[in-house]
Design a protein that fits this description.
The structure is a single chain. This protein is of the alpha/beta class and 576 residues long. The protein folds into three domains: 2-188, Rossmann fold; 201-342, Rossmann fold; 368-544, Thiamin diphosphate (ThDP)-binding fold, Pyr/PP domains (Rossmann fold, 3-Layer(aba) Sandwich), CATH 3.40.50. It is 36% helix and 17% strand. The chain is built from 23 helices and 21 strands. The strands form four sheets. It has a seven-stranded mixed beta sheet, with helices on both faces. The protein has a six-stranded parallel beta sheet with strand order 3-2-4-5-7-6, with helices on both faces. Strand 2 (20-23), helix 2 (30-33) and strand 3 form a beta-alpha-beta unit. Helix 1 (5-15) packs parallel to helix 8 and helix 3 (50-64) crosses helix 16. The longest helix is centred in the C-terminal third of the chain and has 25 residues, at 546-570.
Amino acid sequence: MTVPLAKYIFLRLRSLGVEQVLGVPGDYSMPMLDYIYEVDGLQYVGTCNELNGIYAADGLARSKRIPAVFSSTYGVGELCAINGLAGANSEDVPIIHLVGTTSRVYQENHYVCHHAPPQIKGYLPNDHAMYEQSSRPYCVAAEALWDLSTATKQIDHVIAESIKWNKPAILWVPFDMVGLPVDEEDLKRPLNTAIDVSPLTDEVVDAIYNALDKAKTVALLSDMYAERFNLQSYLHKVLDLTKAWGFTTLLGKSSIDESHPQFVGCYNGHLCLEAVWKNVEGADFVFNVGPNITDSNSGGYSREIKDEKLIMINKQNAKVFGKLYEDVNFVHVLERLIAKLESGFTPKSAEKPVAEFSDVELKGPLHQIMMPKLLSEAVQEDGFLIAETGTSQFFAMDVKLKKGAKFFTQVFYESIGYALPAAAGVAMGCPGRRVTLLEGDGSAQVTAQEISTIVRKKLPVTIFLVNNDGYAIERSIWNEDLDYNDIAHWNWTKVMEAFGAKEGEVENYQIRTAEEFLDLVRNPSFQQSKKPQLVELFLERLDYPDHLYLQVKLVGERNKINFQKFSEKHDKLPSA
């Protein structure tokens, strides 16, 4: 039996649990998209542009924990999506990007057709594959189909590598190949997603076990890769068996359920609650799972954990008291560690530290310092909290999540505007779970078109839109009085109506005080609503979260010293 090539792609993806293909149609991709409608349980969801679409795919993949699928057309579409691919690559998010390309006839004969590159020097043959060079660096696997005899293996390779390493991958599908027959039996071929077990795994496990046994106080610090590779059940088991204290970073927030009895708080170097950083850095042993030590994920590099009491395990390596072990995988380590702990480990009984946010009076006009406590009431059990790049990331760190609630923010790649389409993607992938988005007025203007998708698909997204008159995070970093961080003033409570919402289909609110905020989020009708909601929060223009202010100050002072030293070494400055 045979099956059309494009249908093979979608059948393979559907077998993995994929339910949506997001995208923007184009004449080179539409013949491929037609086959979506021949696969039961698969639907196409159009987005407003390719950048928004791939951001939405990113959110869908993070929440559903399987590869998300995004489709675009050749050239103009695929190039628009590259920023989203780069972000997914930086933060380990599996996205399969399907690109409908020019036909093999056009490619072989170098046709000068729409979307194609121009002729070189105006007369030499162009190269239709030129755009591929732009996407390949951000993808764990990239395959351009051409030979029908190898096509299914190429398709399977792209999908398997994306799953294996939690990374984006890309497949270029020529216009003329989508309907050609391939062997349906190839769908029975298992995908190769296994990671080899390193012979050094047991040595790392023994080192961790011995450190746990000797230490009186243990901090289990979970970071970004633990969240991306869905290690929560392993981490909970280790906490239960060892009675270690549980901490996450900002990129790893919710990788340990914050209702877990051993959870303490979110660690971000010295730019977090004092009781958190002191108990992480002061523990006898720090067991760091899935670390990604970036500037904004380490409090501007203020993290101070000494190698002599630190073991780190990650997806492709481990570091034991400063010694590197290559090709050791954290899943293999955790599986064997848990088995060893279950065979007879005696946990220590050190009392869990308490890390509480400062006692802020929730009265009067809204201020950034109030937001963690206010939002702790707003996020629902089993819901999602997504923070946009900007001030929201910094106060979100201390929001206390209820049981089953998940959090993410793009605090490594930091693409302003990412979170709004990502929230739409989460809501598509996890129907029935309320999605709470912390959005800024400046960043929302970058990708606001995707509010129309939220409205059109009636997605249960609550947008808390921080209206502080522009790019507050940029103002906090540099020259807060100059106008390059100013924006137009939008009538936010009319935006969903402008994007097609009919009366009664959406809810809009404006909040200026803490009392108004609490009255709203405690209202059962607000909590139980299934409609899209937009809550405009009015804050002062130069009101910054403390964590942000301190990071800007710390990094600025360090940069000033380092830049001066570098310049003295490398620059020959003219004499006065």
